[in-house]
Amino acid sequence: MIETHHLSKVYSRGLYALRDLTLSIEKAEFVFLTGPSGAGKSTFLRLLLLQERPSEGEVFVNGQNLATLKRSEIQEYRRGIGFIFQDFKLIPTRTVLENISFVPEVLGVPAAQQRRRAFQVLKWVGLQHRINAYPQDLSGGEQQRIAIARALVNDPVLVIADEPTGNLDPDLSLEIMNLLREINAGGTTVLVATHDRELIRLVGRRTITLDQGKVVEVA
Amino acid sequence: MRSIEYAFRQGGASLWRSRESSAFAVLAIALALIVVGAMLIVTWNAEQLLARWSSAAEFSVYLRDEATSDQRGAVETAIDSSGLSNGREYVSKAEALTRFRREFAELAELTSGFDENPFPASIEVRVRPDAQHTTAEALVKRLMGMPGVADARYDRDWLTRVGSGLGTVRAAGLALALLMAVAAAVTVATVVRLGLRTRREELEIMELVGAPLAFIRGPFVAEGFLQGGIGALVAIAALWVGFLVAMAWWGTDLNSLVGGGSVQFLPIRLCLYLIFGGMLVGSIGGLVAAREAA
């Protein structure tokens, strides 16, 4: 599903965020990406989302070389990816339902279908009773479940989560991880960046450890 | 189609949310269009007057006192056969004198001292409105060479001069309008950009979910378009009120300026051009800002 060859990302003053990274993640796999702060986890995810371009090397997702994608193709590529961030990235001026239906809406899905699909994923994360609430009226765990629902509404082949439990307590974190496991059980590839070793131990999946932009351990 | 509907829904909502700052953009566009509209009212009325004068163009052929009736007949035949005449009238020496006394009553006494009538007989010819200026001039030159003709006057040069003066006014107005349109577009871009910054997170999410560029940028262009349209409507309303006030205060003077006709407000066609122009300027401003969105 994801393959990188000698991938490097250099920022100004020759500072390497990633250095000569070669790794592979299979389709329908659940993988943790871990390491200390500044190890390069978020940079790697940004490269996958094409928010940044690599300095050297190549990234293949689903057989597609990301370096060859044009502007319009990038948007098309992103439609196959669900993303979850530590800070949830919900739109504060929109209700829960609107935050989710917004994704199919901007992809041109008819209104009735948008709402039906949004309601389905909301039901799946157990928040169908909060459809008219605004993000600021929800707890951190609820907001992250909304973010997960939004990531799933477009049936992605890959879900990328950057520290999805960073703002949550251990019980809520496990709850979120269980949701991600369920997503993975449905055949979706899940890549989670976290520095929470305890959570990784509890979930028990393949873990790639980065340090100073290099793979130091695969377990 | 869905992206257009989305763009206008979001653009309208954004316009409402930032209505105070949007008012500046609307005002900038309205001011620019008031200048353009005022210039259009002046030039359009002047053009109407010029057209009336052009269609009322005529020339006079002055006959020698000793001209025979055959010579006069030959001149009249030349006029009729030219195809340029829309009618002609023979003014005898006596009629010319009467007309002078009537039209210049204060100078009438001057003519009483003359031993004989100094005014020549003439043929006044109304030129067809569709007649070519050069063809009419050629006819006048030919008539001047005919026996019995003392002189012929066909003075259209002043009309040409007024026309070119009007062209200069129009060009100056257009340059000013263009300058103001650029200023208005910059104001729209600035206001839309402010709204864009408050929606930065939403735009980032849109980019990440793979929204097409039309969905990301469209609302900003629509917002500029709406600001432009509202600005144009405000400008037309202001011009209309200004026109009514001006007509109430100086209506008689203004009407006499246009040769006794009545000064008109802009026709619907020009009002629509103004609205379209406002929307175009607004859209350009919105598009400039939208390029920052994605």
N-end to C-end Cα span of chain B: 20 Å
Count the domains of chain B. 2
In terms of structural class, how would the helical and strand content of chain A be classed?
Answer: alpha/beta
Q: Largest chain-chain contact?
A: A-B, 24 and 17 residues
Q: What does it look like?
A:
The complex is a heterodimer of chains A (219) and B (294). Chain A is of the alpha/beta class. Chain A has a single domain (2-218), classed as P-loop containing nucleotide triphosphate hydrolases (Rossmann fold). Chain A is built from 7 helices and 10 strands. Chain A has a 6-stranded mixed beta sheet with strand order 6-7-8-3-9-10, sandwiched between helices. Chain A has a 4-stranded antiparallel beta sheet with strand order 2-1-4-5, covered by helices on one side. In chain A, strand 1 (2-11) and strand 2 form a beta hairpin. In chain A, helix 3 (96-106) crosses helix 4 and helix 4 packs across helix 5 (140-152). Chain A starts with a strand and ends with a strand. The model of chain A has no long low-confidence stretch (mean pLDDT 87). With 294 residues, chain B is α+β, with helices and mostly antiparallel strands. Chain B folds into 2 domains: 2-53 and 159-290, no CATH class; 58-155, Alpha-Beta Plaits (2-Layer Sandwich). Chain B is built from 10 helices and 4 strands. Chain B has helices at residues 2-17, 19-55, 69-82, 93-103, 108-112, 133-144, 157-198, 200-208, 213-257, 268-290, and strands spanning 58-63, 85-91, 122-127, 149-153. In chain B, strands 2-3-1-4 form a 4-stranded antiparallel beta sheet. In chain B, helix 1 crosses helix 9 (213-257), helix 7 (157-198) packs antiparallel against helix 9 and helix 9 runs antiparallel to helix 10 (268-290). Chain B is elongated, with a radius of gyration of 30 Å. The model of chain B has no long low-confidence stretch (mean pLDDT 85). The interface between A and B is medium-sized, with 24 and 17 residues.
